[in-house]
Amino acid sequence: MKMSLDEMATFVKVVDCGNFSKAATLTGIPVSTVSRRIADLEKRLSVQLLQRTTRQQRLTDIGNTYYEHCSRMLAEAEAAELAVQNLQAEPSGVLRLTAPMALDDPFSSRMIISFLQKYPKVRVESMVNARQVDLIEERYDCGLYAGSLQDSSLISRHFGSVKMIYCASPEYIDSHGLPVDEHQLQGHHLARFDFPEWLQMKKDVLISKVESRHFTNDIVVARRAAIDGIGITRLPEVQILRNLEKGELVEVLPHLASAENAYIVFPSNKQFTTKLRAFIDHAIEFSINNAPWDFH
């Protein structure tokens, strides 16, 4: 009997996801291909693995047994590849990392560029996901997060403390005045930016004190809104250093600045590949020497 690892892997993904559409999204292949692979698998085995209706799908008894064996086999295959990678003297392959916002600040860019220069056989895939990502399910090596992490399935390595500051454009300050404290906020506007709730970051204290004329969950849009003078905005200092240096933005209400811990996180059950270990070590070392924030 000729086995197809693609069919078996697709079958496991369909069962794990609960439907064909989500499996197609996570694997990056068309729904039609997912459906065809399952049909070919059932035809080759001459059994029905899934009972499908318009509303749901469930495993048959035979399908459940087959799923358990396939899952173990695929896990062993992945462990074998990780074992080989760990034996490599030089990090190589694709390092997949995710972050909840665009890493377009000079520090993050230089950190990744210097890592690629140091390890020429590694390719980095950096993906922005505002939603909470399942690192294991979506096959990410690590995530770059800030805030308060509660997921016990993740291991975190602290690599700094990011300062959150309030800022506004010089034009906005000329028009509305420079507030010295919260008692001078009458007539001011807030260009509100909210981080994803799952990061559990400190709340913006001006939300209850200043009228919000603009709201976004995109940090690039928030920065643009601040530069264009829509209102006072709270942003990570590292994301606006160039704008502060150019005079496009000015810090206001410095006594309300706060700090959020920054982390590299990865699954606790994920074996350390040489590329992941190299990236973590490099990121921490680079941060100690170059980060525009307090590393401790």
Q: Classify the helix fraction into a percent range.
A: 25-40%
Main sheet specs: 7 strands, mixed
Unreliable spans are: none
- The fraction of residues assigned to DSSP E strands is 15-25%
State the helix count.
9
Order of helices and strands: HHHEEHEHEEEHEEHEHEEH
Q: What distance lies between the first and last C-alpha atoms, to the nearest angstrom? A: 59 Å
Coarse structural class: alpha/beta
Number of domains: 2
**Outline, from the CA principal axes?**
elongated
What does this molecule look like?
- The chain has helices spanning 5-17, 20-27, 31-45, 61-87, 106-118, 170-176, 219-227, 241-246, 274-290; strands at residues 50-52, 57-59, 93-99, 122-128, 142-146, 154-168, 189-193, 211-216, 233-236, 250-252, 258-267.
- The strands form three sheets. Strands 3, 4, 5, 6, 9, 10 and 11 form a seven-stranded mixed sheet that branches. A two-stranded antiparallel sheet has the order 1-2. A two-stranded parallel ribbon has the order 7-8.
- It folds into two domains: 5-87, Arc Repressor Mutant, subunit A, CATH 1.10.10.10; 91-296, 3-Layer(aba) Sandwich (D-Maltodextrin-Binding Protein, domain 2).
- α1 (5-17) packs across α4 (61-87).
- With 296 residues, it is of the alpha/beta class.
- The longest helix has 27 residues, at 61-87.
- β3, α5 and β4 (122-128) form a beta-alpha-beta unit.
Offer a quick outline of the entry.
The chain is α/β, with parallel strands linked by helices. It has 2 domains: 5-87, Winged helix-like DNA-binding domain superfamily/Winged helix DNA-binding domain (Arc Repressor Mutant, subunit A); 91-296, D-Maltodextrin-Binding Protein, domain 2 (3-Layer(aba) Sandwich), CATH 3.40.190.
